[in-house]
Amino acid sequence: MNIAEFLTITSAIVPDRDAIIFEGKRFSFQALNERSNRLANALAAMGVGKGDRVATIQVNANEVVEAAFATAKVDAVFVPLNFRGRAEEFAFMINDAEPKVVLVGKRYHQLLDGVRSSLTVPVKFIALEGAYKDWPEYESLLAKASPDDLFPSATDEDTVVLMFTAGTTGTPKGVMLTHNSFSSYILNNVEPADPEVEEKNILTVPLYHIAGLQAVMAGIYGGRTLVVQRQFDAEDWMNLVKAEKVDRAMMVPTMLKQLMDSPKFNSADLQSLKVITYGAAPMPLEVIKRAIRVFPTTRFINAFGQTETASTITMLPPDAHDIPATLPPEEQERRFKRLASIGKPLPDVEIRIVDEDGKDVLEGVTGEIVARGPRLMKGYWKREEATKETLRNGWLYTGDLGYRDDEGYIFLGGRSKDFIKRGGEMIAPEEVEQTLMSHPAIDEAAIIGVPDVDWGERVRAIVVRKPGAVKISDEKLEAELIEYCRQRLSSYKKPESVVFTDELPRNPMGKVLKRELRLKFSQPVLAKA
């Protein structure tokens, strides 16, 4: 199913319902469809056609949503670029994707104007949020263009989105996603628009990330009103939820933690929230346990996927987050442990956990998570070797480590490149990190391996103290944390050194940048006197 149909179908079912609410502006589904048609016709007049790329550099805004659907309507490929990029990164991605047109937000006008000399391809820039020099201005283009529907001819297997990975190591890779990459998930997991059912979904995750774009596609097809936040701000988020009586939210773990840590959280009116979906980065067990406690009437869903899978492939559903106090202590403990998992595969997805030779590992043994199903990426843009390495015999090698317990729940163990090999023993950082974050003095933790002549690697913890925790010396707390882990984990997994820092480096989606930690803290572990 062509993703453009998500909008055209819903605009026919609930034409007058608000589709987007953004900074005082409201657009009905009918208006959103018409604006997308106008942009599509304007793009076509610029020579954009089948297979051409249309990029955006803009924070979350109605224009980005309009561009996604307009691009599909002309059988082109939507390329949402990370608006947090620097000039050289924008130049690289534009030269790599070779878009015919780039829609540019106001705060990026001068920056993009400055990279023109670095571009190896001819590009037309369209100015968003007002005029800039001689660039075509977005609203003027729409006003002059036809509102007539277009009829795209792309098939399910044609590429419709080119989304760059974060690029924490090396240059970003463009992931080619097809119409089927999105529709296979949405048609099987989202109820279509219903005139009798109204929901509002606050959109905070950036649209250059797969979680944000998936939320848009699901929301539009489901007839949900999207309350769009330009960029996440905890206080603004709470005000929007209250003012618009928002029903659903998608958050990454760092957003949820910032929200609960806000001094205004306890006085906020968030009673309308029925569902919070979280994902995109590992969820610390202590954070989700706290969230369940402070949002007693809200259901939680952990959705796991990655750019290369286009959307969710495993899920921990709401009922798995229900832990009544009336349960026996051992059952409560079992369910609390399950909260650290990413749940089970969705019905149309196959998941295996394999060793370095691609053979299935035993239950409870950590290996690489590989997936097969209808919504995998088509491949990496212009990267044949990288595609062959990641897609093997129909299976996507995710690069994520994990293990499966005796009930079929999958637990993450970090990225394969972050796996620590100590004296022949394999250590998954995620397990040690979760243990450290359960200590009352620790707010955040990251585990890295540091080179060692005798053991190959040793385990080092980089931790952030919890605000308000009892103050003790670094040396004393280090010893306490090492012993704390020793009592709860196999001895070889415990940290052999602890480094204290004010904050952990993270990408915009909250994932800790282990590469930066290794560069900064990889000095050898010194023997204790």
Topology:
Layout: H1 4-13, E1 18-22, E2 25-28, H2 29-45, E3 53-57, H3 62-73, E4 77-80, H4 87-97, E5 101-104, H5 109-114, E6 124-127, H6 138-144, E7 159-164, E8 174-178, H7 179-189, E9 200-203, H8 210-221, E10 225-228, H9 234-244, E11 248-251, H10 253-261, E12 275-279, H11 285-294, E13 299-305, E14 312-316, H12 329-338, E15 344-345, E16 350-354, E17 367-372, E18 379-380, H13 384-390, E19 391-392, E20 395-404, E21 410-415, E22 420-422, E23 425-427, H14 429-437, E24 442-452, E25 456-465, H15 474-488, E26 497-500, H16 514-521
Parallel strand pairs: 1-10, 3-4, 3-5, 5-6, 9-10, 9-11, 11-12, 12-13, 25-26
Antiparallel strand pairs: 1-2, 7-8, 8-18, 13-14, 14-15, 16-17, 17-20, 19-20, 20-21, 22-23, 24-25
Helix pairs in contact: 1-2, 1-8, 2-3, 2-6, 10-11
- Work out the radius of gyration: 24 Å
Please give the share of residues in helix: 25-40%
Would you tell me the overall average pLDDT?
92
Strand content: 15-25%
Largest sheet composition: 9 strands, mixed
CATH homologous superfamily placement of one domain: ANL, C-terminal domain
Describe the model.
- The protein is of the alpha/beta class and 529 residues long.
- Among the domains are: 350-416, Luciferase, Domain 3 (Luciferase, domain 3, Roll), CATH 2.30.38; 419-521, GMP Synthetase, Chain A, domain 3 (2-Layer Sandwich).
- The protein has 16 helices and 26 strands.
- A nine-stranded mixed beta sheet has the order 2-1-10-9-11-12-13-14-15, with helices on both faces.
- Strand 13 (299-305) and strand 14 (312-316) form a beta hairpin.
- The longest helix has 17 residues, at 29-45.
